[in-house]
């Protein structure tokens, strides 16, 4: 069937989705408790949306449509408090982080939902290995062509969001030496990576998508695991590269950094995106996953090499007026503090491992961090 019509939405509105870990209190391993938690949460109003995810040891929460940093952060905190209270009743802990440090993928159970069972049947063990946890940010777009422009204009900034959000250094009980090991699991899926370069929605919807659908490979936009993808039913683009941060404060800051950056890009303050921008895309993406803020990226326009940390700080200076207009100064202050002083949550988790001497201690620290900010 044809791709649905792109629903125009208010430009620069925001929605945030967070995939969260469900953790046993006695051994800090993942807990297959999604059914119990969701049943408890159904009994009274929830300040947002909570849904199951691929396996029984994870859930996803989503905010309402938001316009600014203050209300977004307030709702994320309210959702967090509601979840923690429910988890306490069930003796279940919740945590952020892009990966659980020592869970065994083969012990995970697929959530009993037709789409998840279909994915499990298609992708085999990759479905259970997809027990990783990300933050997705939706940005409203007033037209479909604006959505595609933003999607591709953001390509050079994708390493910023990977590096700033990175919180998955540990996997299968070891330090992977990656700041974001999670994205390696995502990249295993055949329809992951970058979206094809086109700036016309008509060309995308009636050309590319129609051809892909005719092959039988895809049925909807949900079948694409791209780093950024359009969501026509919402009238948004969806950034999907972020690990779930350890705190809702960091999650809100990342979302409003993206909002401010999109406002800057929509004023056409930079040369328009082009296909050659993607010559360095995979390299830049790897640098951010492997080294976080200490990675190096290549500017696709100038071919200049610069540290991701310095590029973030320079970008903050450029977009500051747009953040001021959007009321996002607090978000940019946190992003600046992360890049210039505190480091990302991958660094913090490694510090917790050094102090505790165990991956169980790392999970315990992540659990506590969700209850209150770590930095």
Structure explained in plain terms:
45% of the residues lie in helices and 15% in strands. It is α+β, with helices and mostly antiparallel strands. The chain has a single domain (14-371), classed as 2-Layer Sandwich (Creatine Kinase, Chain A, domain 2), CATH 3.30.590.20. The strands form 4 sheets. Strands 1, 2, 3, 4, 5, 10 and 11 form a 7-stranded antiparallel sheet that branches. Strand 12 and strand 13 form a beta hairpin. The longest helix has 22 residues, at 69-90. It is globular. 47% of the residues are buried.
What order do the helices and strands come in, and which of them pair?
Layout: E1 14-24, H1 34-41, E2 49-52, E3 58-62, H2 69-90, E4 92-95, H3 114-123, H4 125-129, E5 134-140, H5 144-153, H6 158-165, E6 170-171, E7 174-175, H7 182-186, E8 192-193, H8 201-214, E9 225-226, E10 228-231, E11 236-243, H9 248-266, H10 281-291, E12 296-298, E13 305-307, H11 308-326, H12 329-342, H13 345-356, H14 359-371
Parallel strand pairs: 8-9
Antiparallel strand pairs: 1-3, 1-4, 1-5, 2-3, 5-11, 6-7, 10-11, 12-13
Helix pairs in contact: 1-2, 2-9, 6-10, 9-11, 9-12, 11-12, 13-14
């Amino acid at each position: 069937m044809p791709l649905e019509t792109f629903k125009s939405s208010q430009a620069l509105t925001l929605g945030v989705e967070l995939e969260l870990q469900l953790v046993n209190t006695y051994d800090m391993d993942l807990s297959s408790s999604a059914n119990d938690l969701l049943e408890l949460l159904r009994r009274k109003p929830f300040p947002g949306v909570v849904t199951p995810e691929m396996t029984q040891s994870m859930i996803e929460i989503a905010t309402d449509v938001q316009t600014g940093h203050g209300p977004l952060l307030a709702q994320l905190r309210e959702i967090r408090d509601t979840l923690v209270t429910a988890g306490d009743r069930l003796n279940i802990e919740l945590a952020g982080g892009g990966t659980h440090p020592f869970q065994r993928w083969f012990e995970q159970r697929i959530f009993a939902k037709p789409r998840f069972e279909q994915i499990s049947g298609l992708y085999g063990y990759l479905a259970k290995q997809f027990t990783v946890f990300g933050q997705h940010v939706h940005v409203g777009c007033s037209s479909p062509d604006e959505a595609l422009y933003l999607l591709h204009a953001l390509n050079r900034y994708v390493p910023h969001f990977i590096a700033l959000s990175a919180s998955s250094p540990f996997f299968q009980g070891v330090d992977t030496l990656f700041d974001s090991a999670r994205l390696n699991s995502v990249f295993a899926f055949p329809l992951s990576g970058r979206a094809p370069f086109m700036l016309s929605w008509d060309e995308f919807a009636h050309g590319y998508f129609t051809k892909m659908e005719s092959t039988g490979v895809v049925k909807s936009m949900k079948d694409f695991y791209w780093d950024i993808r359009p969501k026509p039913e919402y009238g948004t683009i969806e950034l999907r590269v972020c690990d779930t941060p350890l705190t809702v404060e960091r999650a809100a800051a990342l979302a409003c950094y993206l909002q401010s950056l999109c406002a800057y890009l929509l004023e056409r303050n930079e040369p328009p995106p082009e296909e050659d921008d993607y010559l360095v895309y995979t390299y830049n993406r790897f640098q951010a996953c492997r080294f976080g803020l200490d990675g190096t990226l290549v500017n696709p326009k100038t071919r200049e090499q610069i540290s991701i940390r310095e590029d973030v700080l320079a970008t903050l200076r450029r977009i500051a007026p747009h953040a001021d207009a959007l009321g996002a100064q607090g978000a940019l202050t946190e992003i600046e503090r992360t890049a210039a002083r505190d480091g990302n949550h991958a660094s913090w988790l490694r510090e917790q491992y050094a102090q505790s001497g165990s991956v169980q201690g790392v999970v315990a620290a992540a659990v506590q961090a969700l209850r209150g900010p770590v930095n």
